[in-house]
Amino acid sequence: MVRAPCCDKTAVKKGPWAREEDDILVNYISKNGHGSWRTLPKLAGLLRCGKSCRLRWTNYLRPDIKHGPFTPEEEQLVIQLHAILGNRWAAIAARLPGRTDNEIKNIWNTHLRKRLISMGLDPQTHQPSCLEGSAKGLPTSSLTRHMAQWESARLEAEARLSMDSSALLLLPSPKKTTSPNKTTYPDYILRVWHSEVGESFRNRKPVCFSPASQASVSGTTSEMAPKTDPKLDMELSCATRSDDCSTFYSGMTDRLSPSEMEDSSDTELQLYFDFHGPNDMSFLETQVN
DNA sequence: AACTAGATCAACCGCGCATTA
DNA sequence: ATAATGCGCGGTTGATCTAGT
């Protein structure tokens, strides 16, 4: 099947939006709503692709967009949600009102990713990068000890899991699925538990989402709708119940002696460790305003 | 002041999913 | 059941800005 182009590429303007174009788009949408994005440019009198209009509106012109730099709390939230959700920027954005997926993706790639690297953490897995032979931020001895503690915690959590799993299987399926190959809650939860994601939770390690593991959990990386998807909420609540990645960050604080903390003199590192208490998962329930 | 390299971020592109005919 | 269409997502690009020399 050949996909029809979304617009006549030769007849549309590309590149940065002019002020007048913004005005036209805002005026049109405020009066008529966006309706069909494909037909909007023609109706509004814009020489733009509908896709471009949608992007401009959702990423910049929308009235509820929060402009300006991210607060430390927002940055922290992005890091923690990334540990749970991986590169699902739209899902992360849904938890930060006023911030767009594009903005979050940019802030991640330009700031937060580098910050994790400088802390000696792998930005994809959120695990100490010494595991891959490139530790920079923390003393190797401390990290080795932490790995051992995680392993111990994992064994403990696995025992708990065996009890939790049976309880979860009793949950009723929340709604009829539209497709026969879509999973019900218990099935989905089990898949999560048995996936890389679930293992991370069970291990009390920060979650790492490889593309393969995301696919194994959800079918595809974009199948979960970010805003009200019950599966996503369930995933997040699983994380909550299982002392997720925030415990990792704060837990490391608990386990480091003062002298070890001095070893990692990076003040940002300290900030991240101090941000949440071991059981404080409220950031998943309350939204940053 | 001029140049360069790196950082930033708005915008584009291609793909996949959902919906509709 | 299948094809066509629209939309949203994540990855990438490139123009612009900024700091350093």
UniProtKB/TrEMBL annotation:
Keyword Nucleus in the entry? The reply is: yes
Q: Which residues form the Myb-like domain?
A: 9-61, 62-112
> Which Gene3D superfamilies does this UniProt record tie to the protein?
Homeodomain-like (1.10.10.60)
Question: Which PROSITE patterns does the record associate with it?
Answer: HTH_MYB, MYB_LIKE
UniProt GO molecular function: transcription cis-regulatory region binding
Q: What is this protein called?
A: Myb domain protein 17
Cited InterPro entries: Homeodomain-like_sf, Myb_dom, Myb_TF_plants, SANT/Myb
Per the record's keyword annotation, is Acetylation included, yes or no?
A: no
Q: Which keywords does this Swiss-Prot/TrEMBL entry list?
A: DNA-binding, Nucleus, Repeat, Transcription, Transcription regulation
Q: Where in the cell is it found?
A: Nucleus
What sequence ranges are listed for the domain HTH myb-type? 9-61, 62-116
What are the top taxonomic ranks of the organism? Eukaryota, Viridiplantae, Streptophyta, Embryophyta, Tracheophyta
- What would be one Gene Ontology cellular-component term for the protein? nucleus
Organism of origin is: Artemisia annua
Q: Which SUPFAM superfamilies match?
A: Homeodomain-like
User: Where is the secretion signal located?
Assistant: none
